[in-house]
Amino acid sequence: MSSLAHAGPSIQVGFSPEGSARELVLKTIGSAQHSIQMLAYSFQAPDIMQALVDARNRGVEVRVVIDKKRNLGKTSLAAMDFVTSNGVELRTNDHFHIHHDKTIIVDGNTVETGSFNFAPS
Fold first, then answer.
1. pLDDT tens digits for the chain (121 residues)?
2. Closest to 44 (Cα-Cα) out of 65, 89, 14, 74
3. CA 78 to CA 34: how far, in whole Å?
4. N or C: which end of the chain has fewer CB within 10 A?
5. What backbone torsions phi and psi does residue 56 show, to the nearest 5 degrees?
6. For the chain, what is the total number of helices (H) and then of strands (E)?
7. Nearest to 74 by CA among 65, 82, 86, 63
8. pLDDT for res 65
């Protein structure tokens, strides 16, 4: 009797502020081939904004929902303008007290989630 081995899902862990969480976020965005769906509380980090635009320029569908109240400052507004002017679909959410999600779904089969804010530090 032969048996087939099935590979289980792979799990990677990143930590902050050591930097490995940011690297994992950028790697996840960079791996997208078809779609990125992002839920974000803070939306300000230039390297993450650039990675989203780069993905869009590769033909990836990029859709983002962010907390409205957290992203009314100058840095957030500039980040929102940058990504939307480069084809990223972005919506703000103010239906709840706080939209504190921090999740990225790539190609419908990869999930990045945790407590890492998409902010510069």
1. 556 665 667 777 766 666 688 899 999 999 999 999 999 998 889 999 999 999 999 999 999 999 999 889 999 999 999 999 999 999 998 887 777 888 999 999 998 888 777 787 6
2. 74
3. 26
4. N
5. -60, -40
6. 3, 5
7. 82
8. 95
Looking at residue 118, its pLDDT comes to 77
Q: What distance in Å separates the CA atoms of residue 76 and residue 35, rounded to the nearest whole number?
A: 23
Neighbours of 117 (CB within 10 A): 19
Q: To 5 degrees, how large is the angle CA 61–CA 10–CA 15?
A: 80
CA–CA separation, 33 vs 70, rounded Å?
Answer: 30
Domain range 20-113, its CATH number among 3.30.870.10, 3.90.1720.10, 3.40.50.2000, 3.30.450.40 = 3.30.870.10
Token digits of residue 27: 């790697």
C-alpha dist (Å) from residue 93 to 16, 22, 39, 77, 96: 26, 24, 10, 14, 7
pTM over 0.90: no
